[in-house]
Amino acid sequence: MGLHTGGQEQRGQYMKESGDNVHRHAWVEIDLEAIRYNLKRFRKHLGPDVKIMAVVKADAYGHGAAECARVALATGATMLGVATVDEGLALRKTGIAAPILVLAQPPAETIPLLLQHQLIPGVTDMEFVLALGEAADSHGSVAGYHLKIDTGMNRLGVHYSDAGDFLRTVAFHRGLSLLGVYTHFATADDVDTYGFNVQMKRFEEALANIRFMGIDPGMVHAANTAAAIRYKQAHFNMVRIGIGMYGLHPADITKPLIELHPAMSIKARVSFLKPVSVGEGVSYSFTYRSPGSVLIATLPIGYADGLSRSLSNRMDVLVRGQRLPQVGNICMDMMMVEANQRGSMLKPHAVVELGDEVVIVGRSENEQITLDDMAKMLGTINYELACRFGMRLDRVYLD
């Protein structure tokens, strides 16, 4: 595959979707070695007996589902988690044969696709699971499924007090095979543990009732990244690692407990340079005016690439290890940066040249800008920003 040769990274680099060339001078770098490192850290944290489901929904949180899935499976994950049937089909088309769980029950119309491509649905509805069993039986096969149990998040799932009866009702069906049961914690990343403890108690009650009825629950999984890090009692025999696989923490409280390496960096090249006279405005609405003695550097990345317009005049970028302020309103396809030409003997000015690599998220020498930094400015979470940056930018994989 074609190489992207502009960065300072010395390891092998290859493009995912853009053929032999980078089509824009703005891109996402995904460090596959960081993903391997993070999964190995989770393996050490969990111990040898707990299986790992690698959650690669939303195109692996913007990191690229197929590439990340392959790395995760090669590093010890035994199952993949997706949000939709289409996400599962996309993985199958790349030749991935590992078990894939569709975490949210899909429409009944997708049942033929589930059976054809051996995708495992998460089930929350009696009508759906019976239709699944009938379709499988009509083809002389058996459909595996996982039962989603609602323990208090009140988003999806069979109520925890009804889980045993639900499974007993469908246990007769020769076209169905219960492969697992699971729940999802709403507050595993909160300092306050009350909500987690309530959900945990309810899930254990549901499991006890299922087993009392003589039903084997199969693979039991409840822990997301936060619970996998914080709560050993929630590990059961499998955990679902999502955001942590990509080196991002779900909350500040998990950061001291496990070391993770961010896999995603966002970079661009200076595409235009212009000295702007004192008092002249830059970009839409002239929210910035030049103080004089500055160069304005234009970068070919904007809010259509995932860079929130709300960061306008608030964020920095890194050039050769130095922080430079973003100025003016961020545009759909471009943003501007101020390079101070005044400088001093104690603080030399940052010289910016056409084609220079600019780090928007990631490390440059001793300086670093993280998705967490951006998320705090925007009042959101790193998950959202990682997903945004995967929408339009070229991806470069470092291996």
Question: Could you explain the architecture of this structure?
Answer:
The chain is of the alpha/beta class. The chain folds into 2 domains: 32-247, TIM Barrel (Alpha-Beta Barrel); 271-398, Lyase, Ornithine Decarboxylase, Chain A, domain 1, CATH 2.40.37.10. 27% of the residues lie in helices and 26% in strands. The chain has helices at 32-46, 57-61, 65-74, 85-93, 111-116, 126-138, 163-170, 194-212, 225-230, 371-378, 382-389, and strands at 13-15, 26-31, 51-55, 79-82, 100-102, 119-123, 143-150, 158-159, 176-182, 219-221, 238-241, 264-269, 272-276, 281-282, 288-289, 294-299, 316-319, 322-327, 335-340, 357-364, 367-369, 394-398. Strand 9, helix 8 and strand 10 (219-221) form a beta-alpha-beta unit. The longest helix is centred in the middle third of the chain and has 19 residues, at 194-212. It is elongated, with a radius of gyration of 24 Å. Mean pLDDT is 93; it is low at 1-10 and 17-21.
